[in-house]
Write a structure and sequence with these properties.
The protein has 302 residues and is α+β, with helices and mostly antiparallel strands. The strands form 3 sheets. Strands 1, 2, 3, 5 and 6 form a 5-stranded mixed β-sheet that branches. A 5-stranded mixed β-sheet has the order 10-11-8-9-12, covered by helices on one side. A two-stranded antiparallel ribbon has the order 4-7. It is globular. The N and C termini lie far apart (95 Å).
Length: 302
């Protein structure tokens, strides 16, 4: 038998099989190739929160269970239990709901609500009366904490204590004054890191304290208590004062962004700002009565 004659070839001329490469949209066997496009996470321009959903998750340092961080209306963070609970099983003072990424106290009228993790944490004693359903969840988290400890996956945080000062003699958690308020930093001033997301979807490694921007001043200010609190002895405390800086610079520090990301308002945050509203009674262990590097002729400049 003669080979099959291909159309278009002269009589008596035979052509062999020629390999045909598969199209780019298909595999070698002709099956369609599915291309998964990576869609970057973005924050809507109308969103009151700049925190990405990937930056809201974390683990409790006391029990090792998963928590979700959210911002409240006053821009203070709160840790909520990842799953919703039936509203009827949660005390009225412990009910929270989310709206546009912002946590609001009390319920929103639905049958489900969120609850702070501190109410369920097995390492803490709840301040509000809890029912049998809340106690059942606390027991489940306690069993999981014990399993994490036994397997060596989790080590509970030690008792609260004041970390030692760094090699520069500056407090490890300084008190900062900005925007007509005082805040307790989560780390030393030089180590406060930008919370914005880079193009590679990682947290920005740049510090907030930039050499090309105005610097704050270390100064001694009265440790005045908040309204309604007991009076404290008339003592002076070391404060890193940023109140003399322009408003834009103070806002940059409050949002914890480096100068490059402060100029890009559309960039999302990959972590919450580490500021904690300073309370002279709760944070008495962090009060320092001497300026860093208190030497003759030193004027408190950072």
């Amino acid at each position: 038998m003669l080979p099959h004659r291909l159309g278009g070839a002269p009589p008596g001329t035979f052509t062999g099989m020629r390999p045909r490469p598969a199209p780019a949209a298909r595999h070698w066997d002709g099956s369609p190739r599915t291309v998964h496009l990576c869609r970057p996470l973005r924050v809507a321009a109308t969103s009151p929160s700049r925190l990405l959903r990937t930056g809201q998750s974390g683990y409790c340092r006391w029990c090792g269970n998963r928590i979700n961080w959210h911002q409240r209306a006053d821009q203070r963070p709160i840790d909520l239990h990842p799953t919703e609970l039936i509203t009827a099983h949660v005390p009225a003072s412990c009910r929270w709901h989310l709206s546009s990424g912002i946590a609001h106290p009390h319920g929103d009228g639905s049958d489900w609500c969120r609850i702070p993790h501190t109410v369920l944490c097995p390492r803490h004693t709840p301040t509000a009366p809890t029912g049998p359903h809340i106690e059942a969840v606390r027991r489940q988290l306690a069993v999981r904490t014990r399993r994490l400890i036994d397997t060596g996956v989790f080590t509970p945080a030690p008792a609260a204590c004041e970390p030692a000062a760094g090699t520069t003699g500056r407090p490890a958690r300084p008190v900062v004054q900005l925007l007509l308020g005082r805040y307790l930093a989560e780390t030393a001033i030089e180590d406060v890191r930008c919370v914005a997301q880079t193009r590679h979807r990682h947290r920005c490694p740049q510090p907030v304290l930039a050499p090309s921007t105005p610097q704050g001043l270390w100064t001694l200010l009265p440790a005045s208590p908040q309204r309604g609190q007991l009076t404290l002895p008339a003592t002076l405390m070391a404060v890193y004062d940023l109140s003399r800086l322009p408003y834009t610079e103070q806002l940059r520090w409050r949002t914890q962004r480096c100068p490059a990301h402060a100029a890009t308002p559309g960039a999302a945050d990959l972590a919450l700002a580490g500021w904690e509203v300073f309370d002279p009674l709760l944070h008495a262990a962090h009060i320092r009565t001497r300026l860093p590097h208190a030497t003759p002729g030193h004027h408190g400049k950072a």
